[in-house]
Amino acid sequence: MTYLLVAGLLCLSAVAADAQSSASARLLAAPPVLENLSSEPGVVEVKITAAPARLSLLPGVETDVYAYNGSVPGPTLELTEGDRVIVRFRNELPHSTTIHWHGVHLPFEADGSAFHPVAPGEEYVYEFTVHPGTAGTYWYHPHPHHHTAYQVAMGLQGAVIVRDPDDPLAHLSERILFLTDNRFTAEGAIDFAELGSRQARVDAENGREGDVIFVNGQVMPTLEITSGEVQRWRVLNASSARTYLLSLPGHGFLHVGSDGGLFEHPVRTDEVLLAAAERVELLVRGSGNPGDEVTLRSLPYDRYLPQTRPAEWTDTLELLTVRNSEESATDPITLPTTLRPIPALDPADATVTRPMVLTKNRINGQMMDMSRIDEVTELGATEIWEVENLVGMDHSFHLHGVQFQVLDRDGEPEAQPIWKDIVNVPKRSTLRFIVRFDNYPGKWMYHCHILDHEDAGMMGVLEVRPPEP
Ligand code: C2O
Ligand code: CU
Predict the structure, then answer these.
(1) Has residue 341 been placed in a domain?
(2) Residue 433 is part of which domain span?
(3) Does residue 458's CB lie within 6 angstroms of at least one atom of ligand 1?
(4) What is the number of the ligand 1 atom nearest to the C-alpha of 113?
(5) Pair 388, 300 in one domain
(6) Which of 274, 294, 329 is the last residue of a domain?
């Protein structure tokens, strides 16, 4: 069966090109890709060094940053299901750090959580094998205890793309949109609020947001599309706290994937909410005349407490110009209605329902303690986690090492099972997800992915134990 993507999905309207976008139009460029140093088939071996650098993030200004292999964002790790992966990491930062492979199903020793810090000058080797069925869009970032927000804001983050050798959308041309935000002083330094200032309190409450939005490290770049062409966008929100409500005004997206890869069935939608650390895959179809432009925007979304809600929260943010290229229209494309089967985990298999109550910087009333185990389960167990947000701002919930399926939100069942590793929990709401702890024993962190909340202790530890002999 095929799914015909009708011409109306995205009609680029004849928006008059405004002077600013045509003058400064820089074409969107993908981040660099990590070079595979292995010649063995099925083995990916890469080197990553984290070190201070001085780069131009804003046009014409140099900024002191921390960079992976000298670039912000860092280079993309390209993998295929089944690959054996060896990452030789070297820490040349003045602080200890880690690389966490956000969302990837891998052994505890390779998770790069705060349990495996890498001291300045030291090296660490992350080794794992990419599981079949896990093709999707992931990312990597530091995870040192209490200092994640700072290191990420300084520039440490990069994308991981896992491909399926039988990808049903492999014929589409692909773009990565790696979203970050940052804040700068008048001199162009990365701006952190002064201790004890009002801004410091706002950042602690909201999570630090920046007024400059970057796509792949570029400010308001231009992405070209040909009329009739369908592009696959992998959108990653690598921001520390900012939530995006994506829209292409007057048009739409075909939403085909989330954190853990493709859906079973595509969903047509006009807006997509993307909380910090979430990923989506969107299909966008170009139509209209050469030179027509439309702006990818983020619409206002109120995730805030009234006391610290930024005055500009109602502003619409512009992320990217989508411009019709001069090339002639391509033929309409057909897409499968079923992208891949996703078996639903069965609540009848769950051995326990675990409550997770979110309040200010706490989960179940506790602040993170590295020496405490908060929850224990057995390898192979299926569980339901009930995440309840008791406060008046959104928090998110991320669980390391596994993908889960949301069952319901405030009692409303999800439309289809999809794989996720992070979920936004809106103010005063409850959601339930189901998860199975396969393959890897160890200590797995769960936390809010608003990084200032995580650093302040909004985190806990689940230990997955091998069954008693
Ligand atoms: Cu992306 Cu524990 O984090
Ligand atoms: Cu939070």
Answers:
(1) no
(2) 347-465
(3) no
(4) 2
(5) no
(6) 329
Atom of ligand 1 nearest to the CA of 102: 1
| Residue bearing the CA closest to ligand 1, atom 3 | 102
- The per-residue pLDDT for range 380-403, each reduced to its tens digit, is 999 999 999 999 999 999 999 999
Cα 429 to averaged position of ligand 2 atoms, centre (Å): 14
Separation in Å, CA 27 to CA 132, 165, 171, 179: 34, 29, 22, 16
Chain segment 323-353, per-residue pLDDT in tens: 999 887 777 778 889 999 999 999 999 999 9
Q: Are residues 179 and 301 in the same domain?
A: yes
pLDDT band with cut points at 50, 70 and 90 for residue 25: low
Same domain, 304 and 430: no
Q: Measured from the CB, is residue 277 less than 6 Å from ligand 1?
A: yes
Q: Which atom of ligand 1 is nearest to the CA of 139?
A: 1
Asked if the structure places residue 58 within a domain, the reply is yes
Cβ-count burial 358-397 (b if 16+ within 10 Å, e if not): beebbbeeeebeeeeebbebeeebbbbbebbbeeebbbbb
Phi, psi of 205 (to 5 degrees): -75, -50
How much is the pTM? 0.94
